[in-house]
Amino acid sequence: ADPIFVGHLVDYTGPTSDVGKPYGQGVADALAWINKNGGIAGQPLKFETVDYSYNAPRAIATYKKWVGTDKAVAVQGWGTADTEALVGFVANDKVPNFSASYSGHLTDAAGKGPKGTKPAPYNFFYGPSYTDGCRALVQWAAADAKKKNVDKPKFVHLGDNHPYPNAPKEGCAAYATEMGFQVMPPIQYSLKPGDFKAQCLSLKDSGAHYAFLANTGGSTISLLKSCDTVGVSTQFLANVWGMDENALRGAGDSADGVMFVVGGADWKSDAAGMKTVREISKVSDASGSEYRPVHYMRGICSAFYMRDAMVAAARMSGGVNGPNIKAAMEQFKNHVPAELQGVCIPSTWTAEDHRGTTKVFIYRANSKGGQQSISMAGEAEIPRKPEWLGW
Amino acid sequence: MQSETTPILQARDISLRFGGVQALTEVGFEVRPGELFSIIGPNGAGKTSMLNCISGRYSPTSGSVLFKGRDITRLTPNQRATLGLGRTFQNLALFGHMSVLDNIMVGRHHLLKNNFLTGGLYWFGGAQREELEHRRHVEDIIDFLEISHIRKSVAGTLSYGLRKRVELARAIAVRPDLILLDEPMAGMNLEEKEDMARYIVDLNEEWGMTVIMIEHDMGVVMDISHRVIVLDFGRKIADGLPAEIMDNEHVKRAYLGVDDDEAA
Amino acid sequence: MPEAVLEHPEPVDAGPKPAAKPPILTVNNIEVVYDDVILVLRGVSLSVPEGEIVALLGPNGAGKSTTLKAISGLLRTENGEVTRGNVNFMGEEIANLAPEEIVRRGIFQVMEGRRIIEDMTVIENLRLGAYTRRDNGVKRDLDMVFDFFPRLRERTGLAGYLSGGEQQMLAISRALMARPKMILLDEPSMGLSPLLVKEVFDIIRQLNRELGITMLLVEQNARMALKASSYGYIMESGKIVLDGAQQDLINNEDVKEFYLGGGGSERKSFKNLKSYKRRKRWL
Amino acid sequence: MAGPSASLIPCGQYKTDYRRDSTIFPTPMSRGFAIAAVLLLCLAPLKIGGTELLSPYQLNMLIQIGYYGIAALGLNILVGFTGQISLGHAAFFGFGAFASAWLSNSLGVPVFWAIPLAGLLTTLVGMLFGLPAARIKGLYLAIATFAAQFILEDFFSRADWFTGGSAGTIAQPFSIFGYELSGDRHFFYVVLAYVVVLYLFGANLLRTRDGRAFVAVRDHYLSAEIMGINLTRYRVLSFGIAAFYAGVGGALFGHYLSFVSAESFTILLSIQFLGMIIIGGLGSVMGTLMGTAFMVLLPEAVQAMSQSVGNVFPALTEGLAFLKEGAIGLAIVLFLIFEPDGLAHRWKMIKAYWKLYPFSY
Amino acid sequence: MNTDLLTQLLVNGVIIGTLYGVVAMCFVLIYKSTQIVNFAQGEFLLIGAWTCWWLLTSMEVPFWLGFPLTLAFMAVFGVLLQVIVLRPLIGEPIISVIMVTVGLSIFFQAMMKWMFGVWAKPFPEVFGTKSINVLGLNVQTPYILSMGVSLVIMVGFAWFFKFSRFGLAMRATAFNQQVAQSLGISVKSVFAMAWAISAVVSALAGVVVGMVNGVSQALSFFGIKVFPAVILGGLDSIIGAIVGGLIIGVLENLAEFVDSQYLNWGNLYSVAPFYALIVILMVKPYGLFGTKQIERI
Ligand SMILES: Nc1ncnc2c1ncn2[C@@H]1O[C@H](COP(=O)(O)OP(=O)(O)OP(=O)(O)O)[C@@H](O)[C@H]1O
Ligand SMILES: Nc1ncnc2c1ncn2[C@@H]1O[C@H](COP(=O)(O)OP(=O)(O)OP(=O)(O)O)[C@@H](O)[C@H]1O
Ligand SMILES: CC(C)C[C@H](N)C(=O)O
Ligand SMILES: [Mg+2]
Ligand SMILES: [Mg+2]
């Protein structure tokens, strides 16, 4: 049978390559594994992995080529900037884009959200949206503040001026205000690692109790180190791409106590589906000894939801094509790919609401004198408020 | 050459300082139209500085320069060129990567009307016609200076003597009424000096240009100039006919050396 | 170059001449090519006896400076190359040595156009002249140089602001600071006032006499150059076309006509050259 | 004593009038060659008997060479001809892209007009940033343009009304008389037309008064001024012209990609532009196009090569992306070590060699 | 006005500024002697820091040995780089050479990423006390040390260029290579020396920053910061490089102050130096200390 073409965008060398590498590897390994295990109802997947260095225009150019030349039926995407830029294109071309951008804007499938986001009918992602992740951390912070008897705690958003860090900025700030926080003016720090002592001094001066780090791990390391140097005592909260095992290692003790969002199982988990994950991991690591950071698992989930939708689409008239994949996705209710029980959070998509899951795991980074670990600190279920759709 | 017309150039009490160096001190002189006027003087006397004040490279600390009766002390060098002032340089200042032809065409700059728009549209805005027309003038100059064989050579690869000649050609192309020549014969052998002298005389007599020349070769200066001034330590120490200058004791001491004129 | 009329069909034999004293430098039939294609020297040979001044004359573009640069090794920075022949200095082949090696061996070139370092002071320029020296006579030599050129002592600013003549003096002084065995002088009188030309030539002779420095002198001022030197070469279009001892050259009719001015009799005036064109060449 | 350039005109080719002597193309042959090349390119997007002459991929490369080549020619006029190094060319390229998108999105200007208008707007910005050239020279100026790059990049990411902020903006497809030319096959002709017109314009400009003034300013600005050239005017003008070319190139880029965002216009692209003209040959019009082709095709070639390397040494796949990046850097270094005067120079040497063959010495 | 924050930011500016100054000096050194604008200056820091990191962690060499080894390696590296890559370019147009350093910068960045990964790695603890308090700001010991070292290097450089024979030779080479050669200066060794010194001192700075912030790709951004610094100071002035570095460091932090207290733009910090750069150049076209180019005809 003809192979089904899937475009796979990754950032292995650009500013988000720190987290792009494990996630992209997860997707690639999963797709390879799927092919080895029967493909899509007998049809193999053909996928091309393109490293676009987090340069949105390059992603667009690549996308155009996939659609024009390779007749791609779906795309496994990466960044917020490119995914949001592609929203109109994928809707026109009817090519579902399974992005690694969990920007809330992408969840408003029909454009009915109250914030006037443009409709994103062909955008899907697996995992809690950035805003929901941030909301979960705000919930945790509220409880923490109560415990510490802080009245009217101060909350601040830190991130680059870039679609990805900007995505949860307003929604989460609104929620924080609602939760009784005093929201300080956001502080900007580059997605590229650097020296951020000046920003840390501003942060320190602002007296913020809780700071949400919206960048990725690499720059977060720099920030944590810089803030440690100037003696900032703020409690840091990190977005889903902002902290992981690698970042923890890089930041050392300055990362101790950082709370962060996780959207699936971690490598140490003993969930049933981890057996499959470990097999998938062997695709690129025959020895099976490599440790996979949290993003790897989400990459696998993303690929598997797409596979399940394709399998369902194969049974529809027209076979595996964009509209059928979309339709199949929108029929999933609390769905978990069969092989990945306990790894992926059960997810639901509807024609209007592409918030797959609103459940958020909150982890804590621990680092004391060379002993490092991450541990689950709780989970939150963010309500699916209609007024939060697309926000 | 003793006509009573107004001087084409008047330098009035020009003084020039650079930090601690007083390069010129109240130097004044007049050049009449049609004259071949020489400035001589020891090295460092301020001759080049004087030319720089006239052509606008330096602005004098005090004093003024009048060209055709008009005060040009405040004008920029490029404005002076359009008034009809051309010059050559002591240390070669050609456009090294351009062809000889283009170098000379640059001299026509202020006479040409085409600009980047009409130039870019070449065939449509009259630029072509204009370029070709001026090319004809330039070819006349090339013929006159006998450099037609190197027309297309890149200026920077020419030998010293030829470069000097191209520089002269470029200055002529400006179509100046007054041309300033800074040591046009330095670094040339006798034969080339003779050629150069011939060009300068022709320029003066046949093309009707007024010439101010700085030159160290006394033979040339004495033979071809109408009038000579001598600068020493930034001051004018003599002004007169060549023969008078040669006999001036002060000049002999400061400039020529006490012996004969063998050095020439 | 002006078109040439062949009048001397036989090129003058330009092989190295046995000289009175043993040659310190011999150049053997060298060929120089610029940019891999432009052939400039077409088999030049000459020799310079120790302790003497030898003049190298010729019209513009003949290849005089190129010859000097071929000896001092500075050709390569201009993308030129000695493609044939050899250069021998004090019994050693130096054609392929780096310029700094050649300076170390005692040949110092004073380049055409002065080439002093404009953004340094006079003293710094002079100290650089002594760069290859390791002895501690530099201070003393500074004084010596200032005795030769007293006016340099007073110029304490940047060399770039010196007048042309002052720069030329500085360039020669800088060569002296290296205490070379041989100096290659490229047009030292260019742009100098008559008084200074005399001065410079006096100094050249004095340096030769008192310090015993051998000189190869390229000049346009043939009269002065021949007066100062014991032997001369005349070069045209990349070839040596005539050579001989000082007196022979001074008395040679062609040399008189083309280089010294006036075929034996009177000096003609520059004024009356109008239609007078000579186009005679050795070739 | 014929200089090297004189020898490039083949023997037996005597100019009979000045007009013939001052054409862009030194021989009728080279002119015919150029015309043939353009005609051939016109065929490129066609399908003959159902098979494409060029794959979409190859066509895409050509289009890239086109719009980058236009911008690069502008830079060459600024750097190669006027001698002012600019490290901010990408910002002007970007400005053109944003301006054209903005004109068509917000003001409803048809794309056909938006492109040249964007070029003009960019000219203004270019002259504004070129103003320091009146006072600053050489590397100081180069680094002032470096500052312009960062200042404009910052502007792009915060001027929401104009650029869509850090998220970028959509650009309309090209259309003429209501007929949309959006696919690569159509757009190719748009780019080709711009390349031909702007390259001819550039070549003409450079052989006339203002072009000579540029080179004069570069080679010896002091004497240029004394020859009657207004230095400030030409320094700023050349920034303006460079910006115009960049603006048009950028506008074409934007409408081709249909999306514009600040990330495309970083200092890296500025440097790549410089690479194009240096590799092509400073001060060479045709060299610019060759250099652009080199810089566009290099990453593709490296990509293809690294893929095969990856197949042979699977252990290397891990670092393949970095190897690729490194190879691009290395290729630039090696190229310049072995061919420091650029492709145009090499091309000349090859031509000279064949003309003089077998007397190539 | 929040004077407390202001003081702290200013102290931070001075500290980071001296580092900029040191790197700028290395840049000026190469520029002064070879007329090459080195776009790979930032990568020198990167390579130096990674080498030291590798020696200390993977090879488990003690610091007192690993550090000098790093410097020695960098000296060799600088010389090799010059000999292999830049020497063939002697006499080529300066802009081609600049482009080569850009190529080198791309190449080294990629290689470093390949060899050491994209993640920042913490530097092993070297000093017992981590930081001391200056005007309410915790300052890391290596930074304090770096200020001391910087000062020594600065004085040394100034002396070197003004008085030493080799320093003069470097300046002569910068003026004109042919002239320098005619004076018996080995242009090759001058170049090699300049690159070696520059590489060593940059590596030193790289190690210092690495100790504080961890070693990562981020170090190469010093290579960008160096431009405003050297231009402010004047491309060919060692003193200027230091002053320029300090000004940029302080300016960035001042900008952060104004931004966080009043404007809330978010990134004035990173663009302010560039605005300042243009303004200063308009007033002083050769920077604060740069030598004016001699314009005589
Ligand atoms: N731009 C300048 N800055 C400082 N000093 C200068 C400048 N231009 C000239 N001078 C000084 O002014 C004096 C006169 O110099 P000028 O070049 O006019 O001499 P000159 O008469 O042309 O000498 P020469 O015959 O050697 O060319 C010299 O002492 C020179 O050092
Ligand atoms: N770097 C170079 N590249 C190409 N050609 C050169 C170069 N230098 C000199 N030439 C050519 O070599 C020939 C000889 O030049 P050279 O400078 O040796 O002459 P010269 O005898 O010193 O003349 P002058 O008296 O004018 O100084 C000239 O035709 C010149 O054009
Ligand atoms: C920041 C990155 C980790 C990529 C992420 N998916 C985004 O939204 O851009
Ligand atoms: Mg003078
Ligand atoms: Mg010469």
From TrEMBL, chain B:
CDD domains: ABC_Mj1267_LivG_branched. PROSITE patterns: ABC_TRANSPORTER_2 (PS50893). SMART domains: AAA (SM00382). Residues 9-258 form the ABC transporter domain. Keywords: ATP-binding, Cell inner membrane, Cell membrane, Membrane, Nucleotide-binding, Transport. One of its GO terms (molecular function) is ATP binding. It comes from the Bacteria. One of its GO terms (cellular component) is plasma membrane. InterPro entries: AAA+_ATPase (IPR003593), ABC_AA/LPS_Transport (IPR051120), ABC_transporter-like_ATP-bd (IPR003439), BCA_ABC_TP_C (IPR032823), P-loop_NTPase (IPR027417). Pfam families: ABC_tran, BCA_ABC_TP_C. The keyword Nucleotide-binding applies. This is Branched-chain amino acid transport system ATP-binding protein. It comes from Quisquiliibacterium transsilvanicum.
From TrEMBL, chain C:
GO terms for biological process: L-amino acid transport. Keywords: Amino-acid transport, ATP-binding, Cell inner membrane, Cell membrane, Membrane, Nucleotide-binding, Transport. The keyword Aminoacyl-tRNA synthetase does not apply. InterPro entries: AAA+_ATPase (IPR003593), ABC_transporter-like_ATP-bd (IPR003439), ABC_transporter-like_CS (IPR017871), BCAA_Transport_ATP-bd_LivF (IPR052156), P-loop_NTPase (IPR027417). Residues 1-20 are annotated as: Disordered. Residues 1-11 have a biased composition (Basic and acidic residues). Residues 25-262 form the ABC transporter domain. GO terms for molecular function: ATP binding; ATP hydrolysis activity; branched-chain amino acid transmembrane transporter activity. SUPFAM superfamilies: P-loop containing nucleoside triphosphate hydrolases (SSF52540). Gene3D superfamilies: P-loop containing nucleotide triphosphate hydrolases (3.40.50.300). Transmembrane segments: none annotated. PANTHER family: ABC TRANSPORTER SUBSTRATE-BINDING PROTEIN, HIGH-AFFINITY BRANCHED-CHAIN AMINO ACID TRANSPORT ATP-BINDING PROTEIN LIVF. Belongs to the ABC transporter superfamily. This is Branched-chain amino acid transport system ATP-binding protein. It comes from Quisquiliibacterium transsilvanicum.
TrEMBL record, chain D:
The keyword Transmembrane helix applies. The chain crosses the membrane at residues 29-49, 61-79, 111-131, 138-156, 187-206, 236-257, 269-298, 319-338. It is found in: Cell membrane. InterPro entries: ABC_transp_permease, LivM-like. It is a multi-pass membrane protein. Keywords: Cell membrane, Membrane, Transmembrane, Transmembrane helix. Its main location: membrane. The keyword Nuclease does not apply. It comes from the Bacteria. GO terms for molecular function: branched-chain amino acid transmembrane transporter activity. GO terms for cellular component: plasma membrane. This is Branched-chain amino acid transport system permease protein. It comes from Quisquiliibacterium transsilvanicum.
TrEMBL record, chain E:
The chain crosses the membrane at residues 6-30, 37-56, 62-85, 97-120, 140-161, 190-214, 226-250, 262-283. It is a multi-pass membrane protein. GO terms for biological process: amino acid transport. It holds the Pfam family BPD_transp_2. Keywords: Amino-acid transport, Cell membrane, Membrane, Transmembrane, Transmembrane helix, Transport. The keyword Transmembrane applies. GO terms for molecular function: transmembrane transporter activity. InterPro entries: ABC_transp_permease, BCAA_transport_permease. GO terms for cellular component: plasma membrane. It is found in: Cell membrane. Belongs to the binding-protein-dependent transport system permease family. LivHM subfamily. This is Branched-chain amino acid transport system permease protein. It comes from Quisquiliibacterium transsilvanicum.
